[in-house]
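Allow me, if you will, to draw on your knowledge of protein folds for a short while. I have a record of one protein: its chain in single-letter code and its fold written as discrete structure tokens. Kindly check, if you would, that the fold set down in the tokens agrees with what the sequence suggests. Thank you for your consideration; the sequence and its tokens are set out here:
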Amino acid sequence: MTVTITAFENSPDRGRGLARDMRVRWALEEVGQPYEVRLASFAAMKAPAHVALHPFGQIPTYEEGGLVLFESGAIVLHIAERSAGLLPTDPVARARATAWMFAALSTVEPPIVERSMATIVERDEPWFEARLPMLDARVRQRLGELSRRLGEAEWLDGAFSAGDLMMVTVLRRLAGSGLLEAHPNICAYIARGEARPAYQRAFEAQLAVFTAASGR
């Protein structure tokens, strides 16, 4: 059956691969699953037709036959569970890889998103300069913990998995923040993820949407 995902018609990330449909595109590319993309404007995302797919009016969504999913983590997990290449076959290793997916979304991403949103919507507020060091400290704590666990390993737990896919997409949100450079092993880890052919295909597909929307 045809897989259809939704993505921004005009992404606020300006084609940098930060929008959450990137995770789904990358997962589909890793497992070799063809897919179609339905682009949605910000207005369309809040319209009843889209809210029926995603109750919070966001992207991405995933449709395949009678199955409709929302939330990028749930979508990537579904893709990984039904196709070889993103989860180990050994049940114990598979459980650990799944745990890393949840760690990326539940433990590492929240302070990163809070910091990035503050730099966008609070920068001109009188409290921003006082708040930023606290936000940075929370991110640095998570990066330090992750760096120590990763060590000199290539991936988080053995071979590349959906856990790495999710973690790399989360960490990329810190590009330009100056916070990653204290951990060369994490920088190298992100670079390995970005060098994967499936990542490159997904990135180019998402960038092409922004390029077309901006008339370049």
